[in-house]
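Slide 14.
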Amino acid sequence: MAVKEQDQEFLEIIIKAIVGHPDDVLVERTVDERGVLLTLKINPEDMGYVIGRRGQTAHAVRTLLKIVGAKNNARVNLKIYEPEGSQRPPRRDDREQSSEQRADATDNLDDIDTSSVDDIKI
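Slide 15: predicted structure.
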C-alpha cells in the first residue's frame, strides 16, 4: 500500500472523529491535471454527521482541505460518495420553508397567556 498523502490522512482523522462508524471511513485519492480529488466513503448512517445542518460541516471540511492543499501547492477537492439508492428527504425551497415557519409562529402567538404581565406599566 502506498504512503498516505498529508491531505488524505488529514481528512481521515477529521471524519473518523465525527462519525459513529469510524472503521467504515475510506478515503480514495486520485490526482489529475485539475488537482487532487479525495473521495470519501462512509457508513450511510453517518451521512448527516459529515454533511451537517445545511451542509455546514461539509463546507468547513472542504475549506480546511483547501488550506492543507494550498500549503502543499495543490488544489484539493472533496467528493462525498453517496451510495446508489440512498434515501434523502426531498429538498424544499428556503422561501417556501420560511413562509411556513412564519405562518406557524403567527398561529402560536394566539396561544400565549400574557395575563400576568398585561398590567405592567413601563
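Speaker note: The first strand starts at residue 26 and ends at 32.
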